[in-house]
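#struct-pred
JK: can someone run the complex with NAP? inputs below
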Amino acid sequence: MTHTQGMLREGSLKDKTIIVTGGGTGLGKSMSRYFLQLGANIVICSRRLEVLSATADELKAETGGRVLPLACDVRDPEQIENVIAAAVVEFGQVDGLVNNSAGNFISPTEQLSYKAVDVVVDIVLRGSYYFTLAIGKYWIDKKIKGTVLNISTTYAWTGSGWVVPSAMAKAGVLAMTKSLAFEWGKYGIRLNAIAPGPFPTKGAWDRLFPEELAKKFSFENRIPLERTGDHQELANLAAYLLSDYSAYMTGEVVTLDGGEVLNGGQFNFLKEVTDEQWMAIGQQIKNASRPAKNEGE
Ligand code: HXC
Ligand code: NAP
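RT: done, structure tokens with the ligand placed:
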């Protein structure tokens, strides 16, 4: 038995339909794979349908489960409502939502345009509250005891320099998690969050840990447990929080980061990066922020 193995018993999510935003890549894809292995139907949605369709084909072939890929920009409530409606047509009802979509990149804050701040805050905060509001209205109307899982970060409460738009937005998502867990408890709706430490994904690594910095500030030195996370570890926790095994847990944020948060703000180590270094890596990260339409990660 190791931390890279699935943890829950077979069929733990049987007959549940779960929407995973940003499920075409990275952690969203890994969580979706495990939910399918546990018997769930999955809806994955984000901006790039080509990426989602390729992931859906891969996961269906791998697990034999049912996956519906749908284009959706989470900043647009109409597109979100269409996703929920299409999921209901395809699977009968929706039981779970994972707000996993995000936009993020490291930068000295004074170098950001207003639009650069907006783009991150809108994807993370607006996207999460639009989707949660839409699904909550549907669940309350249909008397479904649904579950929301928000993928947060540890700097949602510690704060962190150099990722300020993301920190502000993730903090808002955390406030929503706790506030609605109280308010919607009477409907049997649960909301929880996970604060992951570094889990290698192309999306995060291209924008947050360019090679030059990764070498200089190695994870081994910054994380008490001296390693990054394995996707299965996160998928195990996510599946538990969406399953009925966690039926008495709501309003909680679970940190899964090898103890990294004990160092304080996750990106505050960037204080050592010089202006010259920022000039060199800034454009590199900007280029990575424009992924090809069909580039899976
Ligand atoms: C400064 C930048 C920039 C950068 C973009 N901008 N990248 N400014 N440094 N590196 C500015 C642009 O100049 C523009 O402003 C504005 O932001 C919008 O940029 P666009 O490229 O037009 O936006 P868009 O195509 O919508 O792309 C959104 C994005 C991109 C957020 C910039 O990175 C993206 O699509 N990200 C999605 C995936 C992602 O970020 N994954 C990582 C999640 S990891 P102006 O004013 O010039 O027009 C994560 C981990 C947390 O959250 C913790 C890790 C351990
Ligand atoms: P990722 O692969 O880049 O995932 C981000 C996803 O968000 C992509 O699939 C992207 O798909 C989607 N997305 C971006 N803008 C969107 C929009 N406007 N509408 C809908 N979807 C949108 O990165 P990841 O590392 O797996 O991150 C997943 C989650 O984990 C994020 O919430 C992130 O903050 C969190 N997290 C990650 C780490 C880590 O170390 N990896 C640590 C802490 C927290 P499209 O481009 O197709 O839209």
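RT: quick notes.
The chain has a mean pLDDT of 95.
The first helix runs from residue 26 to 37.
JK: thanks, will look after standup
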